[in-house]
Amino acid sequence: MASGFSPLLRLIRAGRPSVPALIAATLAAAAGVACSLVFPLLTRNVVDTAGSGGLISETMSFLIAALLGATLFNALSSLLLARIGHNIVANLRQRLSDKMLRLTIPAFDREGSGERVSRIMRDCESISSLTTTQAVNLITGTMMLIGVAAVLYSLDSALTMTLLGALLAAFAVLVPLSMLLDGLSRRTQDEAARLSGLLTQVFSEIRLVKAFTAEQRESRRIGKALENLRRLGMRSSTINTTLEPVIQLAMTAAIVTILIYGASRVSVGTMSVGTLTAFILSILNVISPLMQLTMFMAELQRAKGASARIAVLLDETEEEYDAADPAPARAGELRFENVSFAYQAHDARQQPVLKDLSLNFAPGATTALVGPSGSGKSTILSLIERFYLPVSGRITLNGTDIARIPLQDWRRMIGYVPQNAPVMPGSVRDNITYGLAGRFTDDQIRDAADRADALSFIEALPRGLDTNLIEQGNNLSGGQRQRIAIARMFLRDPRILILDEATSALDGETERQVKASLDRLRAGRTNIVVAHRLSTVFDADLIYFLESGRVSGSGTHSDLVATHEFYARLVERQSHAASLPAAALPTPLSA
């Protein structure tokens, strides 16, 4: 993990704080400091003039003006800083969000999305606070201390040296305590990120939790994470709450000492009452900047920890969108040439999922992938989508390695209908047109929905195409979600069509209707079908049977029934579980 101040400075620049606004906020704060410094001196004049029976009206006017000036300038500075801070947070969150959208799928395999969301929400605020409020507090606090020191010295040098001794003693305690916050701040932010990830995971799968009555189990997991966060928070709070009393104790001791010493000076006539009053008021001006400097040190440690984690995220590998070759102008032959793949391929103990695999997906034809769970079917689809890269071998389209085709161009060529069609937040219209370039009229959208046999239920929804879908599309049935995904494919018009059990959630009648639509959609495309239900691939032009990452048989349905014992057994087993067309049930091999 990056350390030091370089990640922090890098992120401050990335947040693009407005330099003119920062200067204006600093100048306003400096004006407030000047008014605060003048206040004790004007008070001295008021006290001394009142003690001698003179007129104080003019001095009182300046005194009130100084008090109001300090209040107004400080309010203006705070307002400007708030605006800058919100802009920085928005810029950093946008930068991180864009980065996360460009990360590779393996990056999300290593760390949960909830922890990454915590980086966007929590860590950015620490950097914003340091850049704006705490940075200006550092400047104004330093200015205030220098100004107060000059005022105090001009009032009485002996009392000033007494005060300085008390402050040095306080700082001898404060600096080590503030340094302890560094490690605690990083651990607290890491624990908060883990808690965020856990909560995101649990609440996104709340139906699973409730279906298996796992509320108490998840409550214990959350409680354990909360307890870890509480302990770290208490340690930080203990240090933070120690800092303020130390300052107050030092200042109280200094004031008491100065009162005693100053009173003795007043009694012998070497100091006026006004001077002593101004000195004590000036001491009160020291408390605020000391607290500001202390808070700056604490916030600096938090921001360093946050920036180090964000810097790691920003340095993660992005997907390569640019490539050497343009996208092919037409659909073509997609081939796997001796492809091997293993998840976490850097780990020698990780067994390969695909082993020297060669496949051919012909244009205008339907190629099916079947086999038991864990045989590599989903991994093949992930490699086609370029979510992962082969460890060895290559995947080509018309002889061109697909890794040389710009990634976005490549993915726009693919239409993917997964087994459990996901639904994004938004309306039915938004979901049918999701990720598609260009604008579509309502007539085009309705036509696509009609061809996917989805129009009838869409028109029955409260607002038709404008009906908002709730989280994960839970106000739709599984078959309805699937048909919306199929309607999207009619609009997308892909060159390569991937159907991952695309009709598995449909009833028999609807499946036949949608299958007819998909047959029209397949014309002239490279079609890939993944199926567990063999009834969906009987008419495939070519079927690959996968076992343990290798092809153990290939051919048409009839070929495999005649030559592949495992496939034949599956056909026979599934024929007893569902009513299949008689023509689809050739006599299987004997076991």
Automatic annotation (TrEMBL):
Entry-linked PROSITE patterns: ABC_TM1F, ABC_TRANSPORTER_1, ABC_TRANSPORTER_2
Give the species: Paracoccus siganidrum
Q: Which domain of life is it from?
A: Bacteria
Entry membrane topology: Multi-pass membrane protein
Annotated ABC transmembrane type-1 domain residues: 23-302
GO MF annotation list: ABC-type oligopeptide transporter activity; ATP binding; ATP hydrolysis activity
Q: What are the entry keywords? A: ATP-binding, Membrane, Nucleotide-binding, Transmembrane, Transmembrane helix
**Protein name per Swiss-Prot or TrEMBL:** ABC transporter ATP-binding protein
Supply one GO CC term from the record: plasma membrane
Source organism phylogeny: Bacteria, Pseudomonadati, Pseudomonadota, Alphaproteobacteria, Rhodobacterales
- InterPro entries, per this entry? AAA+_ATPase, ABC1_TM_dom, ABC1_TM_sf, ABC_transporter-like_ATP-bd, ABC_transporter-like_CS, P-loop_NTPase, Type_1_exporter
